[in-house]
C-alpha cells in the first residue's frame, strides 16, 4: 500500500486540517500518517484558539515517521510559526522527501488568520523551494506573488511568477473567491486550466486541505501531476456534491461519499457483515 504524510494543524470540528487530510488520504486509497503542528479549537463558525507544538516535538514526530514508514508523498498544511517551518524544511531535506505538496494555508474559510507575518517570510525562503507543487487560493497567490489577482489572466500571471520564483508547479485555485470550480496549473512554463462544474453548496470548510491531500495521495500512487490534479478535482467535486450540511457556519464536506458500504462488525468469529 502506498503511504502519505500530512504535516498540518488539527481541526477540532473535523472538516479541515489533519482530520480532512486523513479522511481524504484514506478515501483515496493510501495509508495516512500525520505530524501535528498545532491544535486548533475551531468549528464551522471560526477558530477560537491555537496551541502550537514545540519545534522539538514536531521534529520528533517527523523523525519517527521517516525512520519507520517512509511516506510516498507529503502534504503540508497549516504551519503557523517560523521555527516549525524551519524544522519541516530541515527534515524534508534530511530524508530527501518525495512528492512534497505545500498548501500555503494563511486564512481559514471562516476568515480566521492561521499564520504569522514572520512565518510567511520563513515559508517563502525555506519551505516553498522544496515543494513539487504549491496550491494557493487567490488571496494566498496575491501574498506570494505581490500581485493583485482579479481575473483569470491575473491568476495565470501570479501562478507563473510563483512557479518561476520557487521552481515548482503551482495550482492557483479559483475557489470561493473568483470562479469557484476553475483552477489553473502552471508547470514547466505552461498553463493548464482545470475547469470544474460549480457546485451550489455553501459548505466549503476544508476544501483547500482536501484538494491538496487528494493531490498528494494520487502522486503517492504514481500518477503524474496533471492526472493527480484531475483526480483530486473529481474527488472534491464528489465530496461537495454529497451536500452534507452540518454546523452553523460553512460546514464540512462528506469525505466518505464514495464508500459504498458501512462496516458494522463481525459475526460468527470471522464472517464480516457489511451494509
Ligand atoms: N462551489 C464549488 N464547486 C466546485 N468546486 C469548488 C467549489 N468551491 C471550491 N471548489 C474547489 O475546491 C478546491 C479548493 O479550492 P478553494 O479555493 O476553496 O480552497 P481554499 O480557499 O484554499 O480552501 P480553504 O478555505 O479550506 O483554505 C478547488 O479545486 C476549487 O476549485
Ligand atoms: C487546522 C486547519 N488547517 C487549515 C484550515 C484551512 O481551512 C483550517 N480551517 N484549519
From TrEMBL:
Keywords carried by this UniProt record: ATP-binding, Kinase, Nucleotide-binding, Thiamine biosynthesis, Transferase
GO cellular component, one term: cytosol
Native source species: Extibacter muris
Protein's recorded name: Hydroxymethylpyrimidine/phosphomethylpyrimidine kinase
Record flagged with keyword Transferase: yes
Gene name, Swiss-Prot/TrEMBL: thiD
Pathway(s) of this molecule: Cofactor biosynthesis; thiamine diphosphate biosynthesis; 4-amino-2-methyl-5-diphosphomethylpyrimidine from 5-amino-1-(5-phospho-D-ribosyl)imidazole: step 2/3; Cofactor biosynthesis; thiamine diphosphate biosynthesis; 4-amino-2-methyl-5-diphosphomethylpyrimidine from 5-amino-1-(5-phospho-D-ribosyl)imidazole: step 3/3
Coiled coil: none
E.C. designation(s): 2.7.1.49, 2.7.4.7
NCBIfam families per UniProt: HMP-P_kinase
